[in-house]
Amino acid sequence: MPATPSPLPPFDPSDPLGLDDLLTDEDRAVRSTVRQWAADRVLPHIADWYERGELPDIRELARELGAIGALGMSLTGYGCAGASHVQYGLACLELEAADSGIRSLVSVQGSLAMYAIWRFGSEEQKRQWLPRMASGEVIGCFGLTEPDHGSDPAGMRTHAKRDGTDWVLTGRKMWITNGSVAGVAVVWARTDEGIRGFLVPTDSAGFSAPEIKHKWSLRASVTSELVLDEVRLPADALLPEARGLGGPLRCLSHARYGIVWGSMGAARSCFEAALDYARTREQFGKPIGAFQLTQAKLADMALELHKGVLLAHHLGRRFDARRLLPEQISFGKLNNVREALDICRTARTILGANGISLEYPVMRHATNLESVLTYEGTAEMHQLVLGKALTGLDAFR
After folding, report:
1. Where is the Acyl-CoA dehydrogenase/oxidase C-terminal domain (predicted)?
2. Domain 140-244 in CATH: superfamily?
């Protein structure tokens, strides 16, 4: 006789597609650790930090993130956790479910500054910086964007000139996360040999990082300008394996992958807030979740949220198999950030006037995602990346 099939588990509103089945026990343990850290250290304070426009105790937070292995976590050696890319993605999702600013701190540290050193640095540079960055003792930043050159970094004006065996850097970088609290800046500059990367200790003479104020997005995040006024560096400050624009772009691809996951964390937070509100808020004698229009909104939000998480999982598996293409990362960033924004905006309509209150996470996530939509490649730039991949025709110039 055929065996009696096991009964199916009940439908889970928090995991309607059963995506947890794709995770290993180790994956779940990583997710649980990061989620618990965010619940303990970020969620009780984040509304106040956001309202005040600051991220106090950032150095302590960095050390705590280092202690749980979240900094440079998919890198190997030098004190890094050596986690899978799926596990790194899960961490990004949980961090951004708390706040985009916290995930940005981790992304810039690990996927931009640390990755640049790990991938393009000398052995001496790796030993000097990576263990202290993995522990959170040293915070890093990544200087590519300039005041007049955002989507077109090839036009950068920051330049480095040789003076004997030294390099002298002059220029400005803009919208740099972690800039004013960093101990080392990875700065990209034009040289006679093309674009090269440099490791700039932030206590170098001529270096300053004034913090950018008056932001209405990513308020719980340190954002700075970098000013390099004839900063003199020794020859060994040069990243030896990075030549041309491909170096910083490869770093950006690594960070964009984290955004594919992270944006779904912000979306999940807003969806959960809307679902809870719809179940408890009463109008016309019953919960608003009992009305057809509200249920339609929730159903559409759940569709896009969990499709986005499934896409992130797929890209993560490809990354771990070393089969992930930059165009596929563009696919993920374009879709997931755009859909996350729509989920946040729809959640705001369900919460009504309460949707704009910091008592709920919705408006905070929505305004943060306006920055996430723009940084590390605007939606338009990723559309053009995909357009070129699809047609074989370059529409950038």
Report:
1. 244-390
2. Butyryl-CoA Dehydrogenase, subunit A, domain 2 (2.40.110.10)
User: pLDDT > 90: what percent of the chain?
Assistant: 94
Closest CA to 319 of 146, 86, 6: 86
* 397 pLDDT above the threshold of 90: no
Structure tokens at 42: 């970020």
| CA distances, 232 to each of 50, 200, 225, 236 (Å) | 37, 9, 19, 12
Could you give the CA distance from residue 237 to residue 233 in angstroms, rounded to a whole number? 6
Of the candidates 94, 96, 146, 376, the residue annotated as catalytic is 376
Sign of CA dihedral 300, 302, 305, 309: negative
Q: Which of 179, 150, 171 is nearest to 252 (CA)?
A: 150
Which CATH number among 1.20.140.10, 1.10.10.410, 1.10.340.30, 1.10.287.990 corresponds to the domain 247-391?
1.20.140.10
Q: Per-residue pLDDT for 2 more than 70?
A: no
- What band does 169 get if pLDDT is binned at 50, 70 and 90? very high
In this predicted model, which residue has the larger pLDDT, 260 or 2? 260
- 376 in catalytic set: yes
| Per-residue pLDDT at 1 | 61
The pair of structure tokens assigned to 27 is 């994956």
CA separation for the pair 216, 371 (Å, rounded): 9
- Which CATH class name applies to 20-134? mainly alpha
**What whole-number distance in Å separates Cα of residue 329 and Cα of residue 315?**
7
100 and 92 in contact (C-beta within 8 Å)?
no
CA nearest to 117, candidates 154, 162, 75, 69: 75
Mean pLDDT of the chain: 96
